[in-house]
Amino acid sequence: MWEGASAAPGALALTTASPSPSPSPSAPTGTAYNGTPAVGALFAKFEGKLRHFCTAAVVRSPHEDLAITAAHCMFGRKLGKHSTVTFVPGYHDGKAPYGTWLVRADFVDASWRKHDNPNDDVAFLLIGRPGHKIQKRTGGEQVKFNVALPAEVRVIGYPDKSNRPIKCDNTATMLNLSSYQQLVFDCGGYTDGTSGGPFLMQVSRKTGLGDVIGVIGGYELGGDTPSVSYSARFLTNIARLYKHAVARS
């Protein structure tokens, strides 16, 4: 899926070598709503116009200044390496209820930078000016690694053509293709712009926060159809990346 229109050159050749599983005939469809504080849209200028292009989520960290998205959202031929990216948590209907935050740095695995490895299509983002802790405003999702599958999750994303996010609850399972360490999630409506959207377990009804075990991306850059979405599994490689981001933040 060319979600966010910001995939790195060559990524498509690497991620379409195997056939795509078909969605379940009983798969639900994502529902538009007003969002949740810790999940928001990434904005940048494209052809002189500011628009949202991917999704990100604030994650718990010691310095309270990190978010997570897909690596392909931050590296690509249309976004451009000198583009200013901002994060708007809880964005809906043109509103920024928790402010607009500059993305100061991003952290991705060397395997993604060099080879666009779908198993490393994850990025951590350093959010906000020094001393401004976004997690205090929005709360943060707890990053979980090596989670047993299948798992019941909620996936949230911002379609490019909508000013509201969508959410959907369903089961995340293992993608059974050799060499791919991926989650797969069936639900309709996950079009361009939903890349980076979090896979959340055990979401609190009170706060909207949960445990993040994936983000839309990885195989097929997140999926070739709006009804099937993928994520790199959060294994030791993503755990190392998270520790690196914490150390550098």
Note the topology.
Layout: H1 11-15, E1 31-32, E2 39-46, E3 49-59, E4 66-69, H2 71-74, E5 86-89, E6 101-107, H3 110-115, E7 123-127, H4 134-138, E8 142-143, E9 151-157, E10 166-174, E11 182-186, E12 198-201, E13 211-215, E14 228-232, H5 236-248
Keywords:
5 helices; 14 strands; 249 residues; alpha+beta; six-stranded antiparallel β-barrel; globular; single chain; Thrombin, subunit H
For the sheet with most strands, the description reads: 8 strands, mixed
The CATH topology is Thrombin, subunit H
Q: Quick check: average pLDDT? A: 89
- General shape: globular
Low-confidence stretches: 1-17
Order of helices and strands: HEEEEHEEHEHEEEEEEEH
The whole-angstrom Rg is 16 Å
Number of helices in the DSSP assignment: 5
Q: Can you say what the CATH homologous superfamily is?
A: Trypsin-like serine proteases
Number of domains: 1
Q: In percent terms, what proportion of residues is strand?
A: 25-35%
Measure the end-to-end span.
Answer: 30 Å
Top CATH class: Mainly Beta
Query: Assembly state here?
Result: single chain
Structural class: alpha+beta
Q: In CATH terms, what is the architecture?
A: Beta Barrel
- SS elements, strand count: 14
State the helicity in percent bands: 10-25%
Short characterization:
This protein has helices at about 10-15, 70-75, 110-115, 135-140, 235-249; strands at about 30, 40-45, 50-60, 65-70, 85-90, 100-105, 125, 140-145, 150-155, 165-175, 180-185, 200, 210-215, 230. With about 250 residues, it is of the alpha+beta class.
